[in-house]
Amino acid sequence: MAAPQAFKMNISGVDQLLATFRNYFNDIDTSFVILNAVSAIGVVIEARAKEILNEKIYNTPQVGGYIRTGLLRARTVADKANATKDQVTVIVRSKQKYAPYIEFGTSKMKPRAFLLPAAQDQSKEALDILNDALTDFLKGKIVK
Asked: What is the CA radius of gyration of the chain?
């Protein structure tokens, strides 16, 4: 069975929050406030994933015959945020083919997850980024 290629993390309540904002500010979707905030969230999750890789793989004694090239870390990226009518998403992933086997393990290797723990570790930071973006948006509306 092939390893999963991605997982999805939802922040509950964001859709209701955006619906409320849309009732008062019809330009929230075109202001790029949410899109930029979600892109920033992707960047902090990517950075944390790379820290976890350093802790779990690159800063441990080398075992076995493989060579540590740093490609897994280098090819872990946050894509640009994407918006549809109902949601805004960002994908944080590794472009390295063997990344799912590191993340989820195999029948012969324990998982050394780095993407999911990064997203979990940064959940409070993600909410703070979103809160700051919406606060700045509101301040801009009040000042005008």
From this structure: 18
Max distance between CA atoms of the chain, in angstroms, equals 63
CA angle 106, 47, 55 (to 5 degrees): 55
Q: What is the pLDDT along the chain (144 residues), one digit of tens a residue?
A: 455 555 666 666 777 777 788 788 877 766 688 889 999 999 999 999 999 999 888 877 776 666 678 899 999 999 988 877 777 888 899 999 999 999 999 999 899 999 999 999 998 999 899 899 988 888 887 765
Q: How many CB atoms lie within 10 A of CB 46?
A: 21
Helix (H) / strand (E) containing 89? strand 88-89
- Cα–Cα distance between 136 and 144 in angstroms, integer? 13
pTM of the model: 0.82
**Dist. CA 116–CA 8, nearest whole Å:** 9
